[in-house]
Design a protein that fits this description.
This protein has 229 residues and is α/β, with parallel strands linked by helices. 29% of the residues lie in helices and 26% in strands. It contains 7 helices and 10 strands. Strand 4 and strand 5 form a beta hairpin. Bound molecules: adenosine-5'-triphosphate. InterPro entries: AAA+_ATPase, ABC_transporter-like_ATP-bd, ABC_transporter-like_CS, MacB-like_ATP-bd, P-loop_NTPase.
Length: 229
């Protein structure tokens, strides 16, 4: 099977002394749900930023299929990311003066690849919330809106950096169940970072990070669902 995303010898230093990532080699395959598991400060966000093209590595290369995205010009990268990648973060980053529908529609490309709005919000269990404003929603609902905004362009890869970090256990499990559903329905390759071992059990593959290194990398033969079984 050919990798969709391939990291070769990725290292990152923020100054001459602190090496945050050391010689990381990883390949990610189409339609899979991957978790990067590690304690706070081990380098998960830095790795996700580099592999999604938001940050340049100090050394090494990131390939999307045959394209080296780690050395692309910023303008080229913005255009590339617009159609192929989406990121979600711990903060939902919704615009408070826009409704849920308007926030989600910001993510559209206007191309045929865009998903159908109604179907997508139904898959995320937020179909009754389209006309509300973000401050009328719970944290879990706001994160599902930010997932819908990221997903509406039907990206090939969805990067989720501590996307459940601000949620309680119940809402975290619900959000990862919904992500799993999107991964199955649309075939989106998901790369999800977390420090929460329980949350990682939904994944097809678990990559364990420690101090800027990959400590373990294994397939999960029986990925679980929390609620929607
Ligand atoms: N822009 C930066 N400048 C200097 N050091 C940085 C910068 N960004 C991150 N670091 C350092 O890199 C290390 C890894 O940080 P990173 O945010 O990647 O870890 P993490 O595993 O995502 O942690 P968390 O789960 O707390 O977000 C930390 O020691 C952090 O202080």
């Amino acid at each position: 099977m050919e990798a969709v995303l391939k990291l070769q010898n990725i290292s990152k230093k923020f100054n001459d002394f602190d090496t945050v990532l050391q010689e990381i080699n990883l390949s990610f395959f189409a339609h899979t749900f991957n978790v990067i598991l590690g304690q706070s400060g081990c380098g998960k966000s830095t790795l996700i930023n580099i592999m999604s093209g938001l940050m340049k590595p100090t050394r090494g290369n990131v390939y999307y299929k045959d394209l080296d995205i780690s050395h692309a010009e910023q303008k080229e990268m913005i255009q590339f990311r617009r159609y192929n990648f989406s990121n979600i973060f711990q903060d939902y980053l919704l615009l408070s003066e826009l409704t849920v529908r308007e926030n989600i529609e910001l993510g559209k490309t206007g191309n045929a690849q865009d998903l159908e709005f109604r179907e997508l919000i139904a898959r995320l269990g937020i179909e009754t919330l389209a006309d509300r404003f973000p401050n009328e929603l719970s944290g879990g609902q706001q994160q599902r809106v930010s997932i819908a905004r990221a997903m509406i362009k039907n990206p090939e890869i969805l990067f989720c950096d501590e996307a459940t970090g601000a949620l309680d256990e119940h809402n975290s499990k619900q959000v990862v169940d919904y992500l799993k559903e999107l991964n199955k329905t649309y075939g989106t390759l998901i790369i999800f970072s977390t420090h929460n071992l329980k949350i990682s059990t939904v994944a097809d593959r678990i990559i364990v990070m420690k101090d800027g290194l990959i400590e373990d990398d294994y397939l999960n033969t029986s990925p679980r669902r929390f609620y929607n079984e």
